[in-house]
Amino acid sequence: MRRLLTIVDLFRVDTANPDLMRAQMRVLRKQVPLLYVILAINSTAVAVTFHGMAPDSVTLYPLGILLTLCILRLGSWLRQRRAPIDEARVAAKLRLTVWLAGALAVGFIAWSIALFEYGDGYAKAHILFYVGTTTIACAFCLVHLRAAALLVMVTVNLIFGLYVSHLDSHAMRAIGLNLVIVSAALIFVIVTYARNFARLIGQQVELERLGRDNLRLANLDTLTELPNRRSFFASLEQALVGAASAGERVVVGLVDLDGFKPVNDTHGHGAGDAVLQETARRLREVVGEAGTVARLGGDEFGLVLPGAADTAEAMGEAIRIALGAPFRLPHGGSAQIGASIGFATYPEAGTKAAVLVERADYALYYAKASGRGTAVLFTEEHERRLRTQSVIEQALRHADLSREMTLVFQPIVDVRRGRTVAFEALARWTSPDIGPVSPAVFVPIAERSGLITRITAVLFGQALAAAKAWPEPVALSFNLSMADIASPQAAEGLVAAIRASGLGPGRVILEATETALIQDVAQAQTVLETLRANGIAIALDDFGTGYSSLGYVHRLPLDKLKIDRSFTSEITKNPASRDIVTSIVGLARNLTLDCVVEGIETAEQARLLESLGCVLMQGYHFGRPMGFAETLRYLDAEAVRSIPPAQAVA
Question: Are 250 and 306 in contact (CB under 8 A)?
Fold first, then answer.
């Protein structure tokens, strides 16, 4: 019974496999028209052979019916050739094809047997040739639809074999038997081919699925399930094409999380991943279906929005509020972060995707520099600044750094001893093309363009040479950039420069800002440990202005904290500033760190800070930045007369 069911299944359309049915329909659209052409030509040739030998009712009339059917079906298949496949009707069409194949097989074999009664031996041989070639041709045209091909082969061979077996001619019976044997072999080929075709389609479907998955993964950020950078630019390009044709505007936005790295460093990568996933969810919720949200990498996200400047302003405010809410962490507790956002609009800020992203990135940089947690739209003013910065960058690239870059030095004073303990080296640049450029301008440009390491190497060499000429106790304090603490190789370069200068490592203090250290706390820790292991002191500059200082300050190998001038400028008038300074001084004492207060401009500030326990101070009250030669005169004068304590400063 099971074998019988298996045989019956050979003559059924596999409706459980829609992919196979679609593939069969695509192939049949190409091959079935050929079947009707072959059947029409072969049938016409047979009718011509028997015309005059057999009555017209046996030759011409059946031929007319057969040709009419062939023309109608040929036209039907040709009309379907370029039409999309109707998924709902594909199974019914395949079943109809099987039924018509069986009906045609019965019709043309019945006509062949009817003609076989007439004509001479040559005419009968033509019938045998007609049956054999037409059956094989039709079967191969239908081979991808196993049920139809087998039905044609079995029907023709069964009927024709029974008929030939009753003929008196041994030759005819032998030819008929030969046809049956060949057909049996072809049936095996058809079954095998159909099975392999079905397997091939299955493999193709799997490959297509894998291709779609790979394409999806190539355009998807797997952590947040947002489009990735590649997909973002593709979406932006598509949006720009549509906007150009419709005369519409597009807003490009870049969102950078403020305070994310401390979460990652303090609570672990699992917490960081959870924050990124929640950020993605909130951004999707704010932007909605109208725009595109993508993760560009790290804690940076990209937006593509329809609309103009007012859209950017409203979206920036909505995102700022959404991301300002606390983030729940996987293992309990919560984290508070924010977001800086840069926007650029098409076509005002640019017409190319790369230009718009660059402009949005500049607006983002401006947002982070002018005050984190804000949204900035790229404007004409930013365009003018960007052009100015481009000029500065080109001047930096072509500058003779050793001649154009110089240093000035500001004293750091121990107010209790009345002695200068160090000079902080401050960079100055005078370009022969554009004149003097403030370090507040050219240093960020150098960092963004990758030129800062060259500048550091030149200036550090000058600073070491200057410090070599100062008296033994006086140290050199030198500022490092993000690039200078980005790798152990950079640290090794600094150590090598100190050794080559002949200056004792104990007389070198290297300053790094919170912003620089927070980029990669683990890497910074490794680099700073390398520097300290060589006897170099480490100072944390601008302390209190960055994010989550207390969360990582105890992890870093530090020797000094430098209190930012923003806390000292109002210290004589603002009790809050006084309390903050008191707290930082207490923290430094508990961690056995020296504390340097920057920005001292008046005697009143100096006296108050000393009363709060501050010993090391720096600012215009003690000395303005001076050239190298002036530092020597300054130290000579100090040797003659000691600086009075802060209480005595008038």
Answer: yes
Is 80 exceeded by the pLDDT of residue 644?
A: no
- Rounded CA-CA distance 323/166 in Å is 91
123 and 199 inside one domain: yes
- Assign 462 to helix, strand or coil: helix
In angstroms, the CA 117 to CA 447 distance is 99
As given in the structure block, the two tokens for residue 580 are: 């903050």
CATH number at residue 588: 3.20.20.450
How far is C-alpha 143 from the chain's CA centre? 46
Same domain, 196 and 310: no
Its sign, for the CA torsion 41, 42, 48, 51, is negative
Which of 159, 184, 213 is the endpoint of a domain?
Answer: 213
Strand positions, DSSP E, 173-225: 220-221
What's this model's pTM, rounded to 2 decimal places?
A: 0.59
User: What span, in angstroms and rounded, lies between the C-alpha atoms of 454 and 445?
Assistant: 13
Does residue 6 carry a pLDDT above 70? no
User: Does 111 share its domain with 204?
Assistant: yes
CA–CA separation, 61 vs 81, rounded Å?
Answer: 30
Q: Is the pLDDT score of 647 beyond 50? A: no
Number of domains in the chain: 3
Residue-number span of the structural domain to which 526 is assigned: 403-648
Instruction: Please indicate, yes or no, whether residues 517 and 472 belong to a single structural domain of this protein.
Output: yes
pLDDT(649) > 60: no
- Crossing angle of helices 18-50 and 90-116, in 10° steps, is 20
Please indicate, yes or no, if residue 218 is contained in any of the structural domains: no
Look up residue 519 and give its two tokens. Answer: 């980029």
554 and 495 share a domain? yes
One domain, residues 430 and 555? yes
Residue 566 shares a structural domain with residue 593:
yes
What tokens does 618 get? 């720096």
Nearest Cα residue to 69 out of 100, 109, 48, 92: 100
Calpha distance 319→38 (Å, rounded): 69
Both tokens of 565, joined, read: 């001038």
Number of Cβ atoms within 10 Å of the Cβ of 256: 21
Q: What does the pLDDT read at residue 648? A: 40
Tokens of 450: 């990758």
Q: What is the pLDDT of residues 408-451, one digit of tens each?
A: 999 999 999 889 999 999 999 999 988 899 998 899 889 888 88
Q: CA 318 to CA 120: how far, in whole Å?
A: 94
**Residue 116 included in any domain:** yes
Tokens of 285: 């919720």
| Least-confidence region, from 246-250, 378-382, 640-644 | 640-644
Longest dimension (CA), the chain: 143
Indicate the residue among 189, 213, 237 that finishes a domain. 213
- State the catalytic residues: 299
At 426 the pLDDT is: 95
Which CB contacts under 8 angstroms, 24+ apart, belong to 497-503?
497/457, 497/460, 497/461, 497/464, 498/464, 498/534, 498/536, 501/461, 501/464, 501/465, 501/468, 502/468, 503/464, 503/467, 503/468, 503/476
**What residue spans of 59-145 are helical by DSSP H?**
60-80, 90-116, 121-141
Under DSSP, is residue 344 helix (H, G, I), strand (E, B) or coil? strand
